[in-house]
Amino acid sequence: MSAREKIAYLKGLIDGQNLAAGSTDKAKFYAALVDALESLAVDIEKHEEVHEELNDYLDQLDEDVSKLEDDLGDFLGEGYDDDDECREHHHHDEDEEDGDYDEFDEEEYESVTCPNCHNDFYYEPAMYKEEEELVCPHCGKQFKLPED
What pTM was estimated for this model as a whole? Predict the structure, then answer.
């Protein structure tokens, strides 16, 4: 039984009690209560519609992302494995993932401090032209490299 059906049943029960012949205060109270419940039922129905639309939208997004992942895999070729497939086929240990930081070669990277937010980060100078600005990964603002 839906909320609207339950409210209609309750309204019928109240009407059957013939409260109008008795106390008008009780009749007003029950009428206001039924009115409030009907408003809530309308709001619930609207929320259910929005919820359904959002679920449909999320399902479509999920399909689109899956298609993009498939297209990316096709574009990158046979050597491409997403993380789940990679773990299934190569049986990585958890400790190996921590070892990625061992491969960080400080000689290829330089540390710089953002003049806007004052956070430090590394960048690879070989990837930048001499006058090209850096973008801070923390605040997103561009700035020129300080001259040595």
Answer: 0.40
